[in-house]
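User: Reviewer 2 asked us to show a designed sequence for the structure in our supplementary figure. I'm pasting the structure tokens here. Could you produce the per-position amino acids so we can include them in the response letter?
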């Protein structure tokens, strides 16, 4: 039996981790067409929508942004799928031709370099702590790990974010090279749209452990979110260099290549992803997208 050309509703819900009630609400609001089977563009639109809603962007604001973008950009019919749309605090930003624009007003948004902002927040430490004994260092590292695990538990159980942040900060206080705690703090700040702080924590994690693939991958995500394609590509590739089986990095590189209209490169990354993940719900999406790109190349 031939497989239907699309993604069944239950697969889409599983991939995006949304409820049937939520999906119906988005269909009713006109973000996607109600269907039992969704296309790849619908999948991208829903993924963008889910991210905007995670940052508490009101549905009405998203609807206004979509209507405005369709009016301003004549060749864009499905903004959520065709454009990079992100949250900037409580407002929406669309990335067009290397610029960030507020879609409703059309106002350009300035994109200050996160590293420069981090420098302004940093002050040199004027005192040097006394050297500790190896036994004392080992004890602090063990205690740091306890606080790190406590932070993980707090996040997993839905405790207030401030409690998890406090646990991770305690872990870093005890062991400044606690790369896992630094990365998790970076991710918390990333979700809060505090990009300068997030980048600072990710960079500190890489300094503490240069061979930690997750720190490189998350920096790739951060730059990708900010529309810095080359920096994102660099960090995704370094994550793969450190861990050749990093499937998520291949997936993101494939999407990044497609956005940059580098179809042949995208095909290579989709193939790389599928070699590492051939059975998940996202693998099904990747395989269909790979087939679509191959067909488009054949018919050129």
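Assistant: Here is a per-position design you can include in the supplement:
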């Amino acid at each position: 039996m031939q497989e239907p050309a699309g993604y069944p509703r239950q697969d889409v819900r599983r991939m995006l981790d949304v409820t049937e009630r939520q999906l119906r609400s988005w269909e009713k609001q006109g973000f996607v067409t109600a269907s039992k089977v969704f296309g790849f563009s619908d999948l991208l639109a829903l993924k963008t929508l889910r991210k905007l809603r995670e940052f508490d962007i009101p549905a009405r604001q998203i609807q206004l942004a979509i209507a405005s973008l369709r009016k301003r950009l004549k060749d864009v019919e499905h903004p959520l799928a065709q454009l990079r749309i992100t949250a900037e605090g409580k407002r929406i930003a669309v990335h067009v031709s290397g610029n960030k624009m507020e879609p409703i007003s059309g106002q350009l948004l300035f994109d200050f370099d996160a590293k420069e902002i981090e420098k302004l927040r940093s002050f040199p430490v004027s005192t040097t702590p006394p050297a500790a004994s190896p036994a004392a260092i080992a004890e602090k590292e063990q205690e740091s790990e306890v606080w790190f695990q406590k932070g993980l538990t707090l996040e997993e159980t839905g405790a207030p974010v401030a409690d998890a942040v406090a646990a991770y900060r305690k872990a870093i206080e005890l062991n400044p090279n606690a790369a896992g705690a630094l990365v998790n703090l970076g991710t918390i700040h990333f979700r809060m749209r505090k990009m300068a702080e997030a980048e600072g924590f990710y960079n500190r994690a890489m300094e503490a452990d240069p061979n930690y693939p997750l720190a490189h991958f998350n920096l790739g995500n951060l730059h990708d979110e900010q529309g810095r394609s080359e920096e994102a590509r660099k960090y995704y590739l370094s994550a793969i260099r450190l861990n050749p089986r990093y499937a998520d990095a291949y997936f993101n590189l494939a999407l990044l290549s497609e956005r940059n209209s580098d179809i042949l490169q995208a095909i290579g990354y989709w193939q790389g992803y599928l070699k590492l993940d051939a059975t998940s719900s996202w693998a099904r999406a990747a395989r269909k997208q790979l087939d679509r790109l191959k067909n488009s190349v054949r018919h050129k």
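For the response letter, you might also mention the following. The chain has a mean pLDDT of 82. The domain at 7-109 is CATH 1.10.1660 (Multidrug-efflux Transporter Regulator; Chain: A; Domain 2).
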